[in-house]
Amino acid sequence: xxxxxxxxxxxSQEGLTSTMSWEEMFRISxxxxxxxxxxxxxxxxxxxxxxxxxxxILLDExxxxxxxxxxxxxxxxKANNTIATLTAARGTIGYMAPELxxxxxxxxxxxADIYSFGMLVLDMAGKRNKLNISTNxxxxxxxxxxxxxxxEGRNGEIGGTTEEENKxxxxxxxxxxxxxxxxxxxxxxxNKVVDMLNGDVDGLQLPPRAVSEPIEAWVxxxxxxxxxxx
Length: 230
Hints:
Layout: H1 22-42, E1 46-48, E2 57-59, E3 65-67, E4 74-76, E5 89-90, H2 111-128, H3 142-151, H4 163-179, H5 190-198, E6 227-228
Parallel strand pairs: 5-6
Antiparallel strand pairs: 1-4, 2-3
Helix pairs in contact: 1-2, 1-4, 1-5, 2-4, 3-4
């Protein structure tokens, strides 16, 4: 793609913000959401991607996003509520849903892609705020930090310099927080995500609670799991 992948437009060095505006970030997030919506609902078979992340979002000459790299994707019937059967965890640390690590959290389904999208959107918002969403230092862990800002009414801390940028930032983080709910059943479908992104930010509510630490912080050297990379 002419403009490469999304990751190169996000924070690359400490202290530097993304080169993209809030408006561009938002437009890309909506485009990615629609792409995943098509994978989940627009094809004859439901396609679960399992590796949504900035590196796999390619940008064309007009910065229209394209979901790429289907090496970990799986096809499932749309006849019922698909429950994926996996023999190994799939994806990239930092964007993988918790149920891919621990079966007692919930069954693996299309909601795993919803979680990855939520982390992607929060990653985009965090880069605009010079924060690393994947750090193990919970004082800087963006989902927890931004949840506290919004719940305490400090919306100006999460956005840009204009009222419109503040609304965009708040909408992105609110949608992202819903998408990374620990229980897969509490995450919205991608149809709902698209509606939330296109709707009025004042109509959005915070989820019951935020994830308090990055999922990868749960994993230690003694954890017995395999990762299906390609």
